[in-house]
Every structure is written in structure tokens, then in C-alpha cells.
């Protein structure tokens, strides 16, 4: 219970700081889905639908097909971004985590509180995305609200995993490589823009190993009512496993760097 209490304390501190920056992030949260759905959904989507006939991909118009995928990728990017450079800054550059641990807050509380706050932020961002998607007639409102939950789970998986990775770094070269060779390829090839069955056969198992693919599958199923490739429980289990393993390594390494 001490860890939970410490996590609540750190969460409250993060929320208080966020009061001064939320306007800028809120503007970006509205702007991003409008730009993506306009360009990829309506712009490219009209070409795809015209070339293929009517609504072709899984029986949906292209904008409808990619909207849940983009919601999941937005959750990935938000979770990864908030657990990468800010974590390294807290450990090495600004040393805010040293200040946190000078208070009664424990390392476990810090890690859990950070991921909890990031997850709440992901939920808010994806909620905005879902509302904007309904304005593009890409989702039903109630299904869009339901899809926020698996998208939030996707953000949690990346928040925990990237925090664990970031806690081992001494400079930001590893973060640049993570986004260049990890986040960006996942964004493009994990099923958000087209089914992974359209990838070469050797690449399909690689795509299925990524947490984003599981998040896209769950989010699309929630938003459109389509069946998932695996049992939904397995998709959820994979995402929770990524988050749990990441949190374990984050707590372990941060204890080593900040306490030991």
C-alpha cells in the first residue's frame, strides 16, 4: 500500500505541473487527428476507394479502416514520448527524480505514478481522437468511446516498456535510435494502414510480435466490431506483459541509479 500511496502522490505532483502546459498539448491533440484523417483518410482514402471500387478493406471505407489504427498509433506515440526523454531528463539532466526521492516517495511509487499519469494522458488524447473521428464519420460515437480503452492499454504498454528502456540509458542516442528504428517502423507496418497479411510472409510474424499490432487489433475490434486475429484475451495479455516487464526493469534500474 505504501507504493500505491507514493504513486498517488507523484501522480498528483505531475497533474499539478501539467496545469501549466496542458493547453499546448490539448491543441496538438485536436490538430493531429484532423491532419491525419484529412490527409490519409480523405485524401489517400479517396484514391484507395476509387481504385478498389467501393469500401474494400475488410468491407470498410479506407478512412474508417485506418481511424482506429491511428488512434492506437497515437496512444503508442504519446506513451513512448512521455516515457523517453522526460525519464532520461529526470535521471541525468534535470535530476528531478533525485529531488523526488529526497521526499518520502519510493522508487516504486515514482515509477508507478509516472506510468499512471502517462496512461491518463493517453486516455485523454485518444478520447479527443475518437471524437474527431466521429466528425469524419469514421466511427460511431459510442464505439469510439469504447475504443479508448484498448488504445489506453496500448499506451500503457509503451509507457512501461519505454520507461524501462530509458532507465538504462546515459544519453539520448538510444532514444533517437528507438524512435528511428522502432517506433516509426511499427507506426508504418503494424496494421494501422493496411492488414499485416499484405506484408511479405517473412515480415508478418515480426509485425505480430510488436505491441502496436495487438493494440491496433483490439482498438479496431472495439471501434468497428471486427473480429481480432487472436483471442482478445491474448492481445490484452501481451500488452500487459510488455507494460509489466518494462515497469520491473525500470524499478530495478532506477533503484540502482538513484538509491544504491
Characterise the protein shown here.
The chain has 260 residues and is mainly alpha-helical. It has 11 helices and no strands. It has one domain (2-258). The chain has helices at 2-18, 22-52, 62-82, 85-93, 96-101, 107-135, 141-166, 173-189, 204-208, 211-224, 232-258. The longest helix has 31 residues, at 22-52.
Unreliable runs, pLDDT <50, ≥5 residues? none
Structural class computed from helices and strand pairing:
mainly alpha
Query: In DSSP terms, counting alpha (H) and pi (I) runs of 4 or more, how many helices?
Result: 11
Total beta strands = 0
Could you state the order of secondary-structure elements as H and E? Answer: HHHHHHHHHHH
Largest sheet: none
State mean pLDDT (0 to 100 scale): 91
Amino acid at each position: 500500500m505504501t507504493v500505491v500511496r507514493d504513486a498517488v502522490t507523484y501522480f498528483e505532483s505531475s497533474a499539478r505541473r501539467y496545469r501549466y502546459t496542458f493547453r499546448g498539448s490539448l491543441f496538438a491533440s485536436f490538430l493531429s487527428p484532423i491532419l491525419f484523417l484529412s490527409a490519409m483518410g480523405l485524401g489517400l482514402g479517396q484514391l484507395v476507394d476509387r481504385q478498389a471500387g467501393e469500401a474494400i478493406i475488410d468491407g470498410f471505407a479506407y478512412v474508417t479502416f485506418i481511424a482506429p489504427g491511428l488512434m492506437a498509433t497515437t496512444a503508442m506515440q504519446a506513451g513512448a514520448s512521455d516515457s523517453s526523454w522526460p525519464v532520461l531528463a529526470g535521471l541525468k539532466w534535470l535530476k528531478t527524480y533525485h529531488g523526488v526521492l529526497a521526499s518520502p516517495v519510493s522508487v516504486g511509487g515514482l515509477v508507478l505514478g509516472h506510468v499512471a499519469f502517462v496512461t491518463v494522458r493517453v486516455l485523454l488524447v485518444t478520447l479527443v481522437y475518437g471524437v474527431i473521428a466521429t466528425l469524419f464519420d469514421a466511427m460511431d460515437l459510442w464505439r469510439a468511446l469504447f475504443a479508448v480503452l484498448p488504445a489506453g492499454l496500448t499506451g500503457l504498454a509503451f509507457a512501461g516498456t519505454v520507461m524501462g528502456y530509458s532507465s538504462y540509458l546515459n544519453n539520448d542516442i538510444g532514444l533517437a535510435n528507438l524512435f528511428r528504428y522502432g517506433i516509426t517502423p511499427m507506426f508504418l507496418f503494424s496494421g494501422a494502414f493496411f492488414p499485416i497479411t499484405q506484408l511479405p510472409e517473412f515480415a508478418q510474424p515480426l509485425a505480430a510480435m510488436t505491441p502496436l499490432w495487438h493494440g491496433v487489433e483490439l482498438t479496431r475490434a472495439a471501434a468497428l466490431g471486427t473480429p481480432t486475429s487472436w483471442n482478445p484475451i491474448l492481445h490484452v495479455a501481451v500488452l500487459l506483459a510488455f507494460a509489466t516487464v518494462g515497469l520491473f526493469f525500470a524499478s530495478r534500474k532506477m533503484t540502482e541509479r538513484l538509491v544504491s
